[in-house]
Design a protein that fits this description.
With about 450 residues, the chain is mostly helical. It has three domains: about 130 residues, no CATH class; about 90 residues, Tyrosine recombinase, N-terminal domain (DNA polymerase, domain 1, Orthogonal Bundle), CATH 1.10.150.130; about 170 residues, hpI Integrase, Chain A (Orthogonal Bundle). Strands 1-3-2 form a three-stranded antiparallel beta sheet. A hairpin with a 7-residue loop joins strand 8 and strand 9. Helix 6 runs antiparallel to helix 7, helix 7 crosses helix 9 and helix 16 crosses helix 17.
Length: about 450
């Protein structure tokens, strides 16, 4: 059964009677009702606002003329414009002046169908009703979804509550810095390979920076595919190419630099700084793992270090205690004998080896590294991640055992260890000498 929803374009008997100040119960029996064209849909009598407005205008004019005739004044000419204090023409009935085609029709009416305003012309109410019914069967235009609203909903609902804080911070940074500005004003449905490629073309910097934005955008567009907003993920188009400068690899300290630092640990003034240097410089630990150590994680009797948790700084200065990066990162490694003398000098109380009851902040770590550089007289900056790269490089260089290096690093695969941490110590002359020895035997 056809159903015409009530809107600003149509009104019921009750609405019309209220406008005319008549009793709704007797309105349909009133002679005035016969002069107002209406339509019955699903048992309801509906009157179009434009038609009601025209009728009221006609009624007011008639009454005004009757008054003028009673006092001897001539009636208002049909051609004269209505006075400003008369009821204005309905907004639903735009002027037909200059529009000969529309002026030929008795009914010229706006009506909202499926959320879209339609202009309908007809000579009879029956013709009008048939056109309304026909248009109501037209599929409504699909509602589009602004990218920024959709992306933030994805982030706040599906991403932020389910990932680590540091990951959520990275994702949010990609949205604010790149994705939302690039697609401002666009709907998800309007984003294709062209828009995606333009985004990455506009981004400067290393490819790793673009890869972070790609990772977030890919998840958003995959969600849009799942929601059936788009048929396929444009980021996965073969035409899209993401290029950029290679990120700068973390260089290991030289063997000579490491020897210098180890020999000068005793010159460091603060006992806490000395213990930090002994643990960070002599073991393949992430900074977050060192900061997460508890006093009981250091076992000098069995010469082991237990890595059970981590401390990160997702918002730079506010530390967050969390589990290790991966399951493989939860491990036990050997304790360097070179570090033991410094560990025995430190009296630590509290939940954390560094910081006591509260882990060190990002600023505190940075200042500690600056003090170590000053006290040792080291020529370069003290950079925690370089120690991890250096120790893993030398561990593999001395043992040639990649699985051993992988286990010490806490990596899930040996490929990760080789790709990012093992840099190699051999020189070109050593490589040539090795080949010469093999082929001259």
């Amino acid at each position: 059964m056809f159903f015409l929803p009530l809107s600003d374009d149509v009104c019921t008997i009750v609405n019309a009677s209220e406008v005319l100040k008549l009793d709704p119960q007797n309105f349909s029996k009133n002679p005035l009702f016969s002069e107002i064209e209406s339509i019955e849909v699903s048992g309801k009598v509906l009157i179009f606002q434009g038609i009601l407005g025209n009728f009221i205008e006609k009624l007011v004019k008639s009454c005004y003329n009757d008054v003028r005739e009673s006092d001897g004044s001539p009636p208002i000419s049909q051609e004269l414009r209505h006075l400003d204090n008369c009821i204005a023409q309905s907004d639903c009935m735009p002027s037909l002046e200059g529009d000969s085609e529309m002026a030929r029709h008795k009914i010229n009416q706006y009506i909202t169908i499926n959320g879209v305003k339609r202009w309908i012309t007809a000579d009879t109410m029956q013709e009008f009703a048939e056109k309304v019914i026909k248009l109501s069967g037209t599929a409504p235009e699909p509602q589009k979804h602004p990218f920024d609203e959709y992306a933030w909903n994805w982030f706040n609902t599906y991403s932020k509550p389910t990932v680590a804080t540091v990951t959520a911070t990275t994702y949010e940074r990609q949205l604010r810095a790149y994705l939302v500005p690039a697609f401002q004003g666009l709907a998800v449905e309007d984003i294709g390979p062209d828009e995606v490629q333009r985004l990455f073309n506009s981004m400067n910097g290393a490819k790793t920076t673009k890869d972070k934005a790609r990772m977030v955008l890919n998840q958003i567009l995959d969600a849009a595919v799942e929601d059936k907003l788009i048929s396929s993920n444009p980021l996965k188009s073969r035409r899209v190419k993401i290029t950029g400068k290679a990120s700068k690899a973390t260089p290991p300290y030289t063997v000579e630099q490491m020897r210098y630092l180890i020999q000068h640990i005793g010159d460091i003034q603060s006992p806490v700084d000395r213990v930090y240097m002994a643990l960070q410089a002599l073991h393949p630990l992430r900074l977050e793992e060192v900061l997460g150590l508890a006093p009981e994680d250091i076992d000098c009797d069995n010469m082991t270090v237990h890595i059970r948790r981590a401390v990160t700084h997702p918002t730079r200065n506010q530390p967050e205690v969390k589990d290790t990066k991966t399951e493989s990162s939860h491990r036990t490694i050997g304790l360097s004998s070179l570090a033991v003398p410094y560990l025995q000098q430190m009296e630590s109380a509290g939940a954390f080896l560094f910081g006591g009851d509260k882990p060190l902040s990002y600023t505190q770590v940075r200042k500690m590294c600056q003090r170590i550089q000053r006290d040792t007289g080291f020529a370069e900056n003290i950079t925690p991640i370089r120690f991890r790269t250096t120790v893993l490089t030398d561990l593999y260089d001395q043992t040639k055992d990649i699985k051993l290096a992988q286990a010490a690093a806490g990596h899930t695969t040996s490929a990760m260890t080789l790709k990012y941490y093992v840099k190699g110590r051999e020189t070109s002359s050593e490589a040539v000498a090795a080949v010469d020895r093999l082929y001259s035997a």
